[in-house]
Amino acid sequence: MDRPVSVNEEYFFDGRPLVSETDTDGIITFANRRFCEISGYGVDEIVGQSHNIVRHPDMPKATFAQLWKTILSGTIWHGLIKNLRKDGKYCWVDSEISPIYHSDGTLKGYMAASKPASRRNIEETAILYEQMITKES
Q1: For 89, which DSSP code?
Q2: Is residue 9 one of the residues assigned to a domain?
Q3: Are 28 and 51 in contact (CB under 8 A)?
């Protein structure tokens, strides 16, 4: 059984958010050092990959459908995401994902900024996501 990375483990979060940016197709164009440290991927391994590389299989499809619907409408999506690390472990993050624009107003891509999710939010969300996945089957 895979072991979660506890949000209480000191190395997980020291006040620095995990930040990543993608193009309009969800291909990673930037990942900050903290994102790389937590995901286990080097920047050279992660840039150019689909952001789905860190998508845990326990995430309901409906969550990502709503996420994309929200950001495609030009608004910010906020929610909990269970991310898969390179080593097979996982971590829960509280994320905000927003569209980013070129100076001329055209869509450039998306930016995600994340922090560790609270234990309470993880417990509540895990139950909800499990119910959603059951309905998807």
Answers
A1: -
A2: no
A3: yes
Dihedral, 59, 44, 72, 57 alpha carbons, nearest 10: -10
Residue 77's beta-bridge partner residues? 97
User: What are 81's two structure tokens?
Assistant: 């995401």
How many domains would you assign to the chain? 1
Q: What is the CATH number of the domain that holds 26?
A: 3.30.450.20
User: What's the pTM?
Assistant: 0.86
Instruction: Decide if 68 is inside a domain.
Output: yes
What phi and psi values does residue 120 have, to the nearest 5 degrees?
A: -60, -45
Owner of token pair 């920047």: 43
pLDDT band at 2 (very low <50, low <70, confident <90, very high): very low
Per-residue pLDDT band at 41 (split at 50, 70, 90): very high
Q: What residues make up the domain containing 131?
A: 18-136
